[in-house]
């Protein structure tokens, strides 16, 4: 499910964690899984690659906490 709030759209199925770091809202994402051909085994195998976090910086602590609260609500709704 793709959710949008204050100009940021994210696929909530890919979100692993949401947290505040200083004046930033950080969304950690699940790893990307890709099938890669292994020449030694002569077959495809599933490989996991890290996905860069999405980081949004705020100048207002109130706005940061409001956005954090809303994203947690959206994530919880999705997780039901």
Describe this structure in words.
- The protein is an alpha+beta fold.
- The protein is built from 1 helix and 7 strands.
- The strands form 3 sheets. It has a 3-stranded antiparallel beta sheet with strand order 3-4-7, covered by helices on one side. The protein has a two-stranded antiparallel ribbon with strand order 1-2. The protein has a two-stranded antiparallel sheet with strand order 5-6.
- β3 (15-21) and β4 (24-29) form a beta hairpin.
What is this structure's SSE topology?
Elements: E1 2-5, E2 8-11, E3 15-21, E4 24-29, E5 32-38, E6 43-49, E7 54-57, H1 61-79
Antiparallel strand pairs: 1-2, 3-4, 4-7, 5-6
Biggest beta-sheet profile: 3 strands, antiparallel
Secondary structure tally: strands: 7
Shape: elongated
Overall average residue pLDDT: 95
Q: In sequence order, what are the helices and strands, one letter per element? A: EEEEEEEH
Q: How much helix, percentage-wise, in residues?
A: 10-25%
| CA-based gyration radius | 16 Å
Residue share in β-strands = over 45%
With strands numbered from the N-terminus, the spatial order across the biggest sheet is 3-4-7
Alpha-carbon distance between the two ends? 12 Å
Helical stretch count?
A: 1
- Provide the low-confidence segments as ranges: none
Helix-and-strand structural type: alpha+beta
